[in-house]
């Protein structure tokens, strides 16, 4: 779908889609020889998710951090977005009820205490927004995205390609011993890759990350796409690597 068609379908401007591409928030999967952007169904699904977050008050920077997070899960995000929208609707309903009551007060039909004039206002944080930030916008993700965000688009593609190659190699080794020479060489590549591209990982942090691959089903699901049991293999290999290199 060309950019004009995508913009017309969604009801946003072409300029907005160009801006999303420029900041790396939504890059179309295809580019014709003439330079025309072509949006795939996957791109449109991502755009839908972006617009949900935007409707909920997230900044474009926050949205990019969230959807770029390695632990981001679309289905889980939809559930959180639904809860956030219900929370927002509840607040709006209270505000509308307060306005209706205030109109009656202005017409002299009812009386209102000062306390009643502010009963519809709620300045507390949306608990579901806090949950979203906790899961996908934590400091580690912020640091990682800040580092990657400084790279050119070509460099970012190279990082993604290298990531895929490392995981493919690890998947081919997942039925061997995590302590084997080949497994440890492959896991060292992963350790060096993380430290070179996504921040600073101590050996303890690296070992803890491996455990998270198994404890957090979102990580497990994404990692095991490369091969069933890869998350378990990586956890064990990362633990061996961390313990051996501490000595």
From TrEMBL:
Domain HTH merR-type: 1-69
GO molecular function ontology, one term from the record: DNA binding
InterPro entries in alphabetical order: DNA-bd_dom_put_sf (IPR009061), MerR-type_HTH_dom (IPR000551), MerR_fam (IPR047057), TipA-like_antibiotic-bd (IPR036244), TipAS_dom (IPR012925)
UniProt entry keywords in alphabetical sequence: Activator, DNA-binding, Transcription, Transcription regulation
Domain of life where this protein originates: Bacteria
Keyword DNA-binding: yes
Claim: Transcription is one of the keywords in the record: yes
Pfam family, one: TipAS
Entry protein name: MerR family transcriptional regulator
Species whose genome carries this gene: Bacillus taeanensis
